[in-house]
Specification:
The protein is an all-alpha fold. Helices cover 78% and strands 0% of the residues. α1 runs antiparallel to α3.
Length: 73
């Protein structure tokens, strides 16, 4: 799952950087929300990345823990 978060962060960053040269045009035509959406996606991507790292770490720890038998004979 971590690669998906990284790809998302990179995609939002590239889109935001692509819109940066058009900042004046976006502002004149009332479309600055496009740029701010890219910035928000980029920043929230780091939150998602942290959650996925934590989830993967928990899953790995749970998988490596010894399993107890639920039925005793």
């Amino acid at each position: 799952m971590i690669p998906f978060a990284v790809v998302g962060i990179v995609a939002w960053a590239v889109l935001g950087l692509a819109l940066l040269p058009f900042r004046d045009w976006l502002s004149r035509h009332g479309h600055m929300n496009w740029f701010w959406t890219c910035l928000a996606g980029f920043l929230w991507g780091f939150v998602g990345l942290a959650v996925m790292i934590r989830h993967d770490r928990h899953r790995r720890a749970h998988a490596s823990a010894p399993r107890e038998r639920s039925e005793r004979q």
